[in-house]
Structures are given as structure tokens and as C-alpha cells.
Amino acid sequence: MSNLKLRPYQEQDVEKLQVFKACANLSRPRTGKTPTSLILSSKWPEGKTLIVCTGSMLYKWQKEYQDWLKQPCEVYTGTPKQRKEALKNWTHGLVITYDTLKEVDHYNYIKDEEGNILEKDYSHTTGAIASIRKSKPKKLIVDEFHRAKGHKTARAAALNLLSKDCEYKIALTGTPAYSTQLDVYNMLHFLWPEQFDTYWNFRQKFVKHHSIWVKGRSGRPEEKLVPDKLNTIGTKLVHKIFDKYAVQHKASDPDVMPWLPKDPIPELIELPMDNTQKKALKDLEEWFETEGEEVIAKNGLDRITKYRQIISEPQILLAVKTLGPKTKWILEYMKEYIDTPTIYFTNSTKHIKILLPLMQKIAPTAYIIGATTKKERFQIEEDFQTGKVKHLICNTQAAQEGLTLDTGECIIFIEQFPPVGSIDQASQRFTATVESKKDIPKRIIKLILKGTYDEVINTIIDSRQENVNVLNDFKNYIRR
Predict the structure, then answer these.
(1) How far apart are alpha carbons 457 and 464 in whole angstroms?
(2) Are the beta carbons of 141 and 51 closer than 8 angstroms?
(3) What is the pLDDT of residues 68-91, one digit of tens each?
(4) Cα dist. 195→121, 125, 188, 192 in Å?
(5) What digits encode the pLDDT tens for the residues 304-363?
(6) Would the CA dihedral through 322, 325, 329, 330 be positive or negative?
(7) DSSP, residue by residue, 377-406
(8) Full-model pTM
């Protein structure tokens, strides 16, 4: 077991939930749901643990599993061969995404000249649910359970199949009902399928309805019952169940994080290098050039620059078709958090030029680089603040000052490089400037490529930042 230690309230959560085979953690972000659920799973009987999460959190969960439980944890991703190898090596933990898990049928379509579908033939089915079930997991952790919204979705169907297979399970989410109170059915059915068997039975027994008039097939008005919210019996039942089988905390609770700083604590997302990066970085380190590529470092400083570029995105220098891990992660994040106002920082304008068209295919994305005029910056700032554009990618040096982006909820550092002041000033771009925005949730993510100078730079930056804090707030440090 790890030397890491849970906080007192987390230990109490584990003690409460470990006696149940199905439970939920409904705590808000930054209250430590991940370590609590991992330690909880270690209290349950031995068996394989499956963790279902979003694509941007795959490697985060793997690291947390290894750090807290000191046991091997595989990631189900990559090529078919790599996925098969992950299943083969699965002895303790395995992390998989919702979309990799779910089963999807694919078809070949025959269309006319105008593009209308005339006929469709079944082609094949994708999804790892069948392979996962054959591996017989015993414990199941589902992160951000609200991602499985809609009782008819493929995500929900996959989780419900696993619910029958896994003896122990826990659902994690800070928003059990994200649209209407009726949304809570998905979680109840997942955790206790026998008690909450079908959506329609749940709706009939526990949901209020109101009448609306709609145009029927005959063209005449018809009365239709629309679900409103949980009725009194349903509300009491849900509260009673969650009170017994769930825990819930907020970061502002006095017994949770009384020491919580005003600024969010950065989250490190550690990504593995791909084979192209490993080979190119090794060649540069040994020979100042890469084999088979016209990448030659003139001196030590030039080598560092090229090293950084390959870490950020190999396509900046190398003639490769596949995108690097950081670029893939960013695109995955955008798909999952398409409506979350996010600011991305990198020192590489070349990387921005590769990322921008890919990001714009997913959602409207603006950018700020050194060549961006003051007038353009003003318009981009206004578009972001008003929500017209929710994703903004910036050159760190070009956008570290003079911008107010306090409607932003997340800052992602694609790469970091001294001076520390640039990182700190970039982080302050989304600090609330008026009281009405002080409660907007804030998150800072740093992308780190494992086994590279990224790790060293992050340590240096964090260390120097701590020294700066001591100098700027020396009276408090003296008191300690």
C-alpha cells in the first residue's frame, strides 16, 4: 500500500462505503474523489478493477492507481495489438474510455445523386465491451458518471452490462442530475438494477408530469404527458438512498479543505511518449541529429529548442503522419468539454498552426500569437468573454499580459518554459476581476510527457515559484 494518506473526511467516506457492494461519491470537484474510490476498491475483495473515464483522464487515473495502490494498472488504448496486450497484462487495474468501451454498429450506405440514403447494409461493430466482459472484472469505478446521459445511449448500455458482471461498483460525479431530476434514473439503475428496473417504471412511479398540446399525426391537437420532476415519493426515496449509500462534499466545507488557496492547484496529466518521439529524442541527445530526418542541431541551445518541439508535436520537425500525444489529448479534451471555456498556452506558434485547424473542426476556436494586432486581440477577448468562442489557444509570451479572460474555467499548459513569471501571469488571465465571477469553477492542467525534460522543467518551475511565494509573503512564512 502507498505512503500517501487520505484526509480524515475521506477515511470516513471509505469506512462508510466499504460495507456496500454499490455506492456513489457525489462530491464536488477538487474534493478527492479519485483517491477515495481507489482506497475503497482496495478494501473490497481481491479481483480485477475496471475504471471507466473520459479520454483526457486515462493516464491521470493510471498514475493515481499506481501511486495510491502500488499495483500495476494498464491503459486500454492505442493500436489493436496494444489493446490486446493491455487485456493480456490486466491483473489489477485497467483504465478505459466511455467511447472505447461502448458498442457501435457501423453500416455501408448506398445513396442517390442528391445524397439521400437508399439502402444500408451492416458492416461491422466496434467497442471493447465484449472483450472486457470476457476478462471478468470484479470491481468497477465509473468516473464522471453524468457522461453516460440518456437511458438509451450506447454508453449507458455498456455500463449496465458491466453492472451485471461486476460484484462491486462505485459511480463518481459532482452532478447526479445535470438537466432534470429525472436524470438520476441512470445512476440508480446502474447501481441497483433490480430495484430500479426500467426507465418507464421509474418514470411512472416517481415522476410528476404535466400536459402539453402538440400537433398529432392526423394534424389535430393531441394531449401529451411531459416529465416534470421527481414527485414527493421519488424525491424522498432518492434522498434516503443517497444518504445511506453515497457521500457528498464541497471544497468549501470547513472539514474538507480549509487550507484551499484562492488559485486552483495545477493538475499534472502525464502522457507516454510514442515510438517516433523516443527515437528522435534519443538521436538528438546522442548525435545532435535524427536518423532519416533532416533535423540537425547546430549547438546545445538549438538542440534544446528542437527537443522541445518534438516533445510538443513531432510534426513540427518530423515528416510523420500521426499526431503526437499532446495534440491527441487536446483534441480528445475538446470533444469531451466542448462547452467549457478553455484557454490553451504554448510557447510554440508552429504547434498552434498545426493544432488550430484540427481544433476548429471540433468547435469555434480563436488564437493569439505575436502577430495578432491590438484590435484583433480586443475582439478575441470580447468573443471569449461573451461566450461566442469558448476555446482560445495562445502563444504564452504573446498573451501572458493585458487580457481579461475571467469567464474561462480551464487553462491548459501544453508546454512550460521559464521564466516562471510568464507561467504565473498566464495563469492569472482567468482570475475573477469582479465579485459576480468569483464562483466560476477554475482548473489548471499541465501536460507532461513522461521521461522527458518536461518533468524536469515542471519541477524547476514549481520550486522557483515556491521560492517566489516565500519572498512575496515572507511574514506568513516566518509565522509558520
Answers:
(1) 11
(2) yes
(3) 999 999 999 988 999 999 999 999
(4) 38, 31, 8, 6
(5) 788 888 899 999 888 888 999 999 999 999 999 999 999 999 999 999 999 999 999 999
(6) negative
(7) HHHHHHHHHTTS--EEEEEHHHHSSS---T
(8) 0.74
